[in-house]
Amino acid sequence: MSLIKKKKHVSKKNKKAWRKHCDIKDVEDFLEDQRLEERLGKFEAKKDSELFVVDTVGEEKPEVVDVKPLTLKQKKRALLPQTPKCYEVLLPTSKVQDPNAKRNHVNPVGTKPTALSKLSLKKQFEKGAYLKKVELARKNRRIVRDKKRRIKEIRNTFDKNIWGEDVLEVKGIPSTLCDDFISTEAQLHNVLPEQRLRPKPAPPKTLVTRPAVVTPHPGVSYNPSYQEHQDLLQQVVQHEEKLMKKEAHLHRVTTSLFSRLTPHEKENQWREEMSEGLPKPHNPANSPSTPSDNDTDNEYKAINPPVKNKKKDHKARRKQKERIAERERLKREKIDKKKITDIYKLRKLQTLISGKEKREEALRVKRAARRALVAATAPPALSAHRTPAPQPDLVEPAQLTGDLRNISSTVNLLRDRFESLQRRGALAASKLMMTKRKRLKAYFKPGHKVTDQDVENYLKKKMVKKTTKKAVVTK
Amino acid sequence: MVSKKKKKYSSGEGAQFMTRKAALKKLQLSLKDFRRICILKGIYPREPRNRKRAQKGAGGIKTLYHTKDIKFLLHEPIIWKLRDLKVFQQKIRKARATRQFGQMRKYLRDYPSINIDHIVKERYPTFVDALRDLDDCLTLCFLFSTFPSIKKVPRDQSLLCRRLSVEFMHAVIAAKALRKVFISIKGYYYQAEFEGQTITWIVPHHFSFQPQSKDEVDFKIMSTFVEFYTMMLGFVNFKLFHSLNLVYPPQLTAGFTPETDKDLVDEHAYVAERIAALNISVAKIAGSNEVEELPEIDIFQTEDGDPQKLEEAKLEVEKVKNLKTMFKGLKFFLNREVPREPLVFIIRCFGGEVSWDKDHFVGATFDESDESIAYQIVDRPSMDKQYLSRYYVQPQWVFDSVNARTLLPINKYLMGAVLPPHLSPFVDKIKDQVYMPPEERALKDPNFKPLDDEPSGSDIEEASDEDAEEKEEDSSEEDDEKALTRQYQQEVAEDSTSEDEDVKDDLDPEKKKLAKEKKKAMAVSTGVTHKENPYQKEIEDKQAFRLREKLVRKKHRNLYKSMKAGQEQRKKEIWLLRKKRRLHDEKVKEEKKAEKRKQKMQALEATS
To answer: Using a CB cutoff of 8 Å and minimum separation of 24, what contacts does B186-194 make?
Structure first.
């Protein structure tokens, strides 16, 4: 199609003018056609089936829906949500996105409450028109606040890889500076020094070396083999025997040191002691039958004869001296003799001494080993209270039902954990002090205006209170 | 000039330690707060070497802390927070006393929570450190998850414990990290392996909550421990889930989200919820692949170069690999009398699918009538309706299979059977030098075959026959080899002779001689492959070992000697017991044989 244009003389003096006034549309059309043919294939080469479709349906008429034309009012209503023409100048025309994604929302003009609207609102509020709305709003606000808070809480989310290197907070950058628009220089400037001012001291050795969860003895299985269960029982028996021995020792050392008296014996003893020196009742068995000694006259006679200062004579003194000297000489002689014989005994003595030394050395090693063992397992003494000693788990044969349904346990796992912490030295052993609750006695203070009726009423009230309390407890 | 006199205990052990009272004064905290911050920060009381000096001459036993520890605490920002809390508590108390309950409620609502995630990072600088210390944490969290709300424990703590423990179990399931299980009277012992760290924890049996007597355990202290441990477990879970390409936090059932106000009043309902939550597969991060399998271990020439150890390690890896896919593609159905939680956890850990009666509990995935169920786990002597397409086994089979790391033969675990003992997998490997009767060995090692496997006397003759046959076969094999070598030698000989003949034809005898000599000089003799003499090598190895033994330090020499002597002794004992057993068995065999022969003779006599 080429429109025949009226010829018009124009200058085609320079390139620009030439380009402007030269009509190359037909050439371009032709080239476009050619390109199209290259793309889609030649028209002649196409099959009929590709070009034509057999029409089986016939022409369809679009259904005419009876739509009422919009009224003027409706048209105006429809226009309402659109931005007014006058504000179109204010809209952004640039295609560059706003760098600040969360720009503060500015209320459009006209939304600010006027003095008049405020007044009317207040009036209506006072009338109670908004009571339900206010209640609802308060509730909604509370829900939103709670939800926000819950989402924020790290305990619910844990959405931080504290061991990852890529998280900014992990590097020590304050969370206020972890934003997209803050330069890395600024962030790094605020990093706290890596080296701590005070390095944390190492935890105690007992805590590091002792296992938190001790591997169980195979005999505590719910269905143990006979051998292992016997082994476990044997352990318990040994432990118990040790305890019994200790107890027996304590008993021997304390209680059984003192002889025991029955109250009857004690009474007798007391009676005897108290009646010492008193004239005894006449006992014919005790009284001498023959009055031969007694028949002498009643003269006083001491039991021990009086002491006399009788001097030794010279002879006796000499004899005594000689005796002492002789004894001394014999003693000397014996020692001298022993000296001579000891020379021959030297080797025997040496073996004796070395043997004793060896035995003592072995004992020392043994003792050291035992001490080391105790130190390895003993709970550290961290407070005046003592950590309860670990007790081997006892599984009574009656407890072993052999199936999982009827397992019964006497072990308190929480206490087990608590004591494990104590044994490892994470906690100082302590005795729990229970706070004693004060028992207040309520009574009715009598006054001059109190009648019997008042007292009765008070008592009744108290009874009612008590019964309700009990009911609550039983619930 | 006289130098100033040094005060006593101003240096050395006396200055190193500080009593608790002094620490309280220094930190200006109440005992309650001090206890709490100590637990959170991991500061523990110390035992001094010389108590008298450490207590500055005072007698008795006082709780002592390192001065350095206390100075370290002094820098903790949480202390300021604790002081703020104190103010808040005063306000609340005042409001309560003046009966301004609205105000009080507001204070309670805005009560600030202490954030301790920086402490977790500080106490466990690397993830592996945290994993190493997870035993206690897991045990306590699992324990607290069974608790109802108690007076001294914060209300949301047990709910949080529930959530975190189930999440951790999901991580174990996804990583297939479980290695050992043990049912004890105390509870279920589990052992998992993450990043080369073995984590052992105890899960209590599900009884209803047992009331604790008040003076046994300090609940306040334990709950402070749990407060720290929940924080730690949360971050560990986060890291584990992310390393497994899973979405954290996982969407579990309704009972675990704090948003829902739905109360699970019934304890059973709670347990059912928990198990149902375990049976859900966790959402994967979009676009992530499966966590790739670990490649085979490379063989490095280690310093000691012990090939046996290397072989052992390889075997171990292979076993673990097998274990991970033990239940893959198998469907399990749990009867209602079976403890479901451990079973669901274990079966799902090794790739199995689990379901249960949907009428009784929530969360069932398939019906009992499903024909593709491979195993039904039953803990009752008999059942009315049984399907032919599945095995009915007792729950112990699952646990024992896990510990044996293969699917054990089910014949000992069938419904109503008397179960074999449940052995502990936590037996020391060091104590392997003990005599094990063949029966026990067969229990522990399914591949072990006792030498005389014939229980009845009738097989004895057959066995001897078989032995003979085996011998024959051996000899025939040897014959074959000999024949082959002979043939080969003949062929070689023939070749050489033919060449010689060719030469013979052409040349004179003199030349022949010359040529022969020349040929001898030039000849390429057939190479002999270097054959290592195994005996020689053994001797050399032994010598090298002895040389190395000489290098043991003087300090350790005695210990080494005693260790070796102990090993020898134990070996000897085992050998002796084995010998005794063998002799005994042989004797029994003989006797049986004699008995049988006698019987036969008698029968013959009777017939004749």
So the answer is: B186/A216, B186/A220, B186/A393, B186/A409, B186/A411, B186/A413, B186/A416, B187/A409, B187/A413, B188/B342, B189/A213, B189/A216, B189/B426, B191/B425, B191/B426, B194/B131, B194/B240
Tokens of A237: 């028996």
- Average pLDDT across chain B, whole number: 82
Q: CB-based contact (8 Å) between B155 and chain A? A: no
Residues of chain B with pLDDT under 50: 259-261, 452-478, 497-504
Could you report the per-residue pLDDT of A17-69, keeping only the tens digit for each? 888 888 889 999 999 999 998 888 887 888 888 888 888 877 777 777 788 88
A223, B207: Cβ pair inside 8 Å?
no
Contact residues, B window 197-236, toward A, CB-based 8 Å cutoff? 200-202, 204-205, 207, 210, 212, 214-218, 221-222, 225, 230-231, 234-235
Q: Which among B64, B238, B258 has CB closest to A150?
A: B258
Distances (CA, A) of B520 to A396, B185, B366: 89, 84, 85
Q: What is the pLDDT of residue B446?
A: 62
3-state class percentages of chain B: helix first, strand second, coil last, to nearest 5: 55, 10, 40
- H/E stretch holding B166 reads helix B155-175
What pLDDT shows up at residue B496?
Answer: 52
Q: What is the pTM of this model?
A: 0.67
DSSP SS3 for B183: strand
Respond yes or no on whether the N-terminal peptide bond of residue B381 is cis (omega within 30° of 0): no
The answer to whether B426 faces chain A, any CB pair under 8 Å, is yes
CA distance A12 to A10: 6
Q: What pLDDT sits at residue A169?
A: 63
Q: Are A414 and B212 inside 8 Å of each other by CB?
A: yes
Q: Are B164 and A158 in contact (CB under 8 A)?
A: no
Is the per-residue pLDDT at A316 higher than 90? yes
Residues listed for chain A: 475
pLDDT of residue B472: 44
Residue given tokens 């390429």 in the structure block? B524
Q: Please tell me the distance from the alpha carbon of residue B25 to that of residue A13, in angstroms, as a whole number.
A: 103
Contact yes or no for A217/A225 (Cβ under 8 A)? no
- CB of B189 within 8 A of CB of B200? yes
Find which of A221, A228, A236 to mutate to test the B interface (most B CBs within 10 Å of its CB).
A221
Q: CA B424 to CA B180: how far, in whole Å?
A: 9
Rounded to whole angstroms, the Cα distance separating B64 from B55 reads 8
CATH number of B327-426: 3.40.50.10190
Phi and psi at residue A242, to the nearest 5°: -60, -45
User: Would you kindly state where each structural domain of chain B is located, as residue ranges?
Assistant: 13-109, 117-208+216-278, 327-426, 428-463+542-608
Chain B residues 485-524 with a CB less than 8 Å from chain A: none
Distance from the Cα of A373 to chain B's closest Cα (Å) equals: 16
